[in-house]
């Protein structure tokens, strides 16, 4: 029974994992999830007994690494709903409250803790839970090794089963099948596609900044960043282009036009993918489910129908010797028409996972950056200096991806610095089915089978050992070195292997890394070339106080939902102004 429970449980440590908090909130009660979806493998009855803690503790002790014990399984869905919301704050108030339990026994503690746990316990320690052992790592060498050896330290694939909504995909595949998925999908993530990402991002960002400037103050930066990100995915994924301010609406289930519903369908699916992962496509078809689930079901059907339409059209175009359009979907179809290609459902599965993995990752990163830059006018000037130097007076539609993008190193440095501190995607690896040796600081430890290995990327990204005394400060300049005063001589700093892993590393790293970099650089260049951003000053504040308030909001009102994100960005409206009309206040 214990083994069964363990293999069926779902880690909270991956972005693609199951964020039960939201699911439960969406449905009203966790118990409901269990009764609605026994097949989705959430076993509340596996809320392990204390005896498992004792057994696991004995196993952990033998490994020879520092150990901490937490009494409640972090994978218990009920606990995940209530941990930080209800119980942890209550316990913190008790005289004996603060301790291992309140510090570590909640989802997302790593962001609040930064590198401190590793400063106290060393580069690696074990968290004993009533479920699995969780080994937390903050050693660049060990992390580089684990991420390199995908066969020895595979991704715990059971987590990613949920993303099989439309078919097998990169995230759910393993071994030879994964090789095939990766080989074919990497043909689609090519330089032509990056060029499309570049030009569409410029188009979207120009409309966005014009809109924000016209508004005076805007509280919707984070939502607007999601719109930008979705529109870029639509363009790069399907060659479909939308104006920035297209409205979000609920899906019209009566219309027969599949293409007309495509964007709304995708938006509804991405907004509700957690619900979809938990319930699965079979359950959301039930007519007795609430309106939200029915709407989601309609969106799934519409999105699949759209993909089928594009698939059939592309096959026909191929048979008529017509050239392929330049987008991810058509590239996948063309690359799969031979003998060893992806099946139709695998193509749909991958297209969905690109959208899922590429949407909020970039959107949250853009939002974090805008807020951070609003607190730091000197940093905006520093980026502007590069933009003026590289792009001159030319209008944005003349900026060329191939020549301009590689020169915008300071702009890229802003991305690296944002995701060093606010890395959106947690990573989880596993020892798989057998014990594995793990070498840390020259000592080798035997880690038991079915142990979770958690690259503590927040710790390794903020540890002063690797980033200096100002490791917690947002300072994009740390990424740029120069031996002269010339911008052209500036060189991008390569971090020590294993010390910077926001896109993971090794064979199973993020295939959308370049996509997200191009998107970010094009967006920031467009926003900052003629504009700057500052916080709206509230009554009784001056600008300095407003900036400190915003920085505090970013640093303290951020946490892990599905990904790392600001909880209430709307509480700090932003003001965008044209550079030419007013000088920046430093
Ligand atoms: C700032 C932006 C992004 C960050 C920080 C990021 C980060 C990551 C990380 C850390 C992983 C590995 C997860 C793990 O091992 O558990 C991953 C996987 C993945 N990412 Fe990204 N990502 C970003 C943007 C994108 C974009 C734009 C796309 C596609 C358009 C994308 C597509 C994928 C896919 C398909 C996988 C699964 C790969 C596999 O299993 O082989 N990502 N990403």
TrEMBL record:
GO function terms (MF aspect): heme binding; iron ion binding; monooxygenase activity; oxidoreductase activity, acting on paired donors, with incorporation or reduction of molecular oxygen
Q: Which InterPro entries does the protein's record reference?
A: Cyt_P450, Cyt_P450_CS, Cyt_P450_E_grp-I, Cyt_P450_sf, Cytochrome_P450_monoxygenase
Q: Where does heme bind?
A: 510
User: What stretch or stretches form a coiled coil here?
Assistant: none
Q: Which Pfam families does the record associate with it? A: p450
Q: What UniProt keywords apply to this chain's record, in alphabetical order?
A: Heme, Iron, Metal-binding, Monooxygenase, Oxidoreductase
Cofactor(s) needed, names only, are: heme
Q: Do you know which CDD domains this protein is assigned to? A: CYP56-like
Q: Which SUPFAM superfamilies match?
A: Cytochrome P450 (SSF48264)
Highest taxon above the source species: Eukaryota
Q: Where is the signal peptide?
A: none
Does the keyword Iron feature in the UniProt annotation? yes
State the PANTHER family in the record. CYTOCHROME P450 (PTHR24305), CYTOCHROME P450 12A4, MITOCHONDRIAL-RELATED (PTHR24305:SF166)
Entry similarity comment: Belongs to the cytochrome P450 family.
**Any idea what this protein is called?**
Putative cytochrome P450
